[in-house]
Specification:
GO terms for molecular function: phosphatase activity. The chain has about 250 residues and is of the alpha/beta class. The chain has eight helices and twelve strands. The strands form two sheets. The chain has a six-stranded mixed β-sheet with strand order 3-2-1-11-12-9. Strands 4-5-6-10-7-8 form a six-stranded mixed β-sheet, with helices on one face.
Length: about 250
Amino acid sequence: MKLALITDLHANREAVQAVLDHARQQGVQRYAFLGDYVGYGADPGWVIDTVRQYVQDGAIAVGGNHDAGVVQGASPQMRPEARQVIEWTRAQLNDEQARFLTQVPLSRTENDMLFVHANAFAPAEWEYIQGRIEAVRSLHATTCHYTFCGHMHEPKLFHLSGTGKAGDFVPTPGVAIPIPPHRQWLVVPGSAGQPRDGNPAACYAIFNIAEQTLTFQRVPYDHELAADKIRRAGLPERLAARLAHGQ
C-alpha cells in the first residue's frame, strides 16, 4: 500500500490540490495529514473541509501548532504576522471547521508507525526537529520504527541503528529510499503549503509500506494565485511574496 504523507498545508488551496492530484496519479491508496492545516494562507476553510473528507474516507490526521492557535489563541512564541493570520483565520471558519481543529489528536500510532506534528518526546510543546540531537530524542521516545512528523518545512530523513548510530540526509525528490525496519526512521516530508528550502514547489512524501521504500516528492503549483489570494485577504505581504521563493 502507498501512503501519502502531507504536512504543513497552511491554508494553501492551490498547493494542496496539486499535491492531492499528484498523489492520486502515483497510485496512493491512503493519506496521512500531519497538521498545520491553517495559518499563512487564504483558504483555511477549504483545506479543513478537504482534510475532513479524506479523514471520513479513512485518512489519518493529527493537529499542529497553528491549528491549536486557532482553537486556543496564538502562543507568545509566534511571530506577529503568524498571530495576525491566526486571528483572521478564526473569523473565517464555521463551527464544523473549528470543531475539527479541536477534535484532531496531537499524535496517532498505527501498527509500527507514529504520526505527529512536531516530535514524539513532547508533542504539545511544539519543539522543532532541527538536527540529529532532536531526532534521536524523538526516536528514543517511541518504540515505533517509523515516525512521521512535520513542523520543519524542509524535507529531511533521519535514522537510528540498533547500536545507537544516527544519521541524516536531505533526500532527492523522486528517488525511492529503502527504509527497512531494522532501523528506526524519522521522516520530515517538508511543507505542502509553505516550503522553505528555496524551492517553491510543494513537498510531500510517499511511503510504500509493502516495499518499505520512501519517496520524497516536489509538485509545482500556481503559487502566484495563492499569493494573490493572500494579498486580497489583507494578510501580510511577506506571506505572499515568500511563496515564489520557497522561503
